[in-house]
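Bumping with the actual sequence this time:
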Amino acid sequence: KAALAEGPQVERVGGTPARRGALAELREEVDALRLLQPRLARLLQAQPEILAEARWKDLERPLGADPALFLRSESGALRLRGWTDRYTGDADATLRLGDRPQVRVRAKAAGDTGQVALPDIRLDGLGGQVTGSGSIRWRDGLAGAFELAGRRIDPGNLDPRFAGRVDFTGKIGFEGNGNFRVELPEASGTLFQRPLRASGTAQRRGSP
């Protein structure tokens, strides 16, 4: 809950129960909050805080003309707590891209107006689990970095030709100018019914 102070009068502004499905209704509530913003003189005195939660079911969204880029989410939830200068949040959702197998993604976040840290990322699916952490910043230019570890991942879920079981550790970094780098210090397991042991680095340089 948040309190509005404008002259001697103080009002209380409360949210509505969590909605399922139609994100258009959620957008209407966000737009209403934006209209109130110029009137906000004080929110919970010196320590303002907003609690927000969004839930959805059977969400579908195309990410491009290619059917393989059609995103589906059977269910999910996003929770945020705090204010623009400091907030925390967590997300839990099932995702499916095109005809690929469904995965469950969970993450915790903490950030401000210029960056967000993701100290706990978990992906269950593709035959195993991927865990890790990362951060994304957009102040003074977009950039991100992630450290991930996968256990018993079956690449065959993405392409049947690459069936197997792989454990790996890796790092991913990117910048707004198109720079992209993937480091794979170690990968081991089986691939093509043969033992696998590999490491390597791939990178792409963007515009100066």
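The tokens above came from a reply further down the thread. The first helix runs from residue 23 to 36.
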